Known about the structure:
Chain B: InterPro entries: Cyt_c_oxidase_su4_prok, Cytochrome_c_oxidase_bac_sub4, QoxD. With 198 residues, chain A is mainly α. Chain A has helices at residues 14-44, 54-57, 60-85, 89-119, 128-161, 165-197. Chain B has two domains: 1-60; 62-93. Chain B is flat, with a radius of gyration of 17 Å.
Amino acid sequence: MKINDSLPLEYRTEENSNKIFGFWLFLGAEIALFSTLFAVYLTLWNRTGSGPTGKELFELNGVIWETFLLLTSSFTCGLGIHAMRLNLKKPMIVFFVLTLLMGLGFLGIEITEFVNYVHEGATLQTSAFLSSLFVLLGTHGLHVTMGILWGAGILIQVGRQGFTDETANKSFIFSLYWHFLDVVWIFIFSFVYMKGLM
Amino acid sequence: MARLFPIRHVIGYIFSLILSVVGLGVVFWDLNPTAGLWILIVCALIQASLQLVLFMHIGETDNKKSLYFNIAYALFVGLVTIFGTLFTMLWGW
């Protein structure tokens, strides 16, 4: 096996750098996926029928907290990878645990928000606006949920095995995914919430 | 302790927070919708680029050209999807 020591651990074998490259291709497909959902939302956002409009529905407080938690979790996730490259296991685990906890906090707020919407009579079936909103936010939220489970699995492996070619590679790929979810959230924050409340 | 917080990451984080606050501003400043929308577009694009470059290290390997091309192609497909939809469904073309 060819090993290139000049690269960070997660890239060193050819298989691993291919996996990272492959994951970037996957993120390209994710961009296309979220673009279709944004296209639907931006087409239907003022088709509110007899249901509430975004301006009546959105609560700024929850959105600010969601944004703050996800931004900060993306930051700590990056710090975790930095610590991994310094071969510091404990700080890396601490940063990743913080990342996942903030992800859970984000999910908690989003689920509360959905429950509140439904209690106010704003369900998936109420209007075209709400259908497209729930599908867009739900797809992002589902990605965060999967990310938390995936990240927790990787943390267990890092805890047991330390940094190996494999665990370092998995952790780095997870970090790409997590940063990408933050990028998607930036667009949701801007073009769903801020645009809706403007 | 300091070496756990590399300057690039800290700067990226601070700028992300600032750009989010500017984005929030469009709700409070009572701008006209076109100006507000442009502020949102510019802030979102800068913030997404910060994530790609400072946090995801898109430019750190030898195949960075392929990565840039991949993201550019995905953005092209995404923008055609979004604006193509808006052209036909909303703007009456």
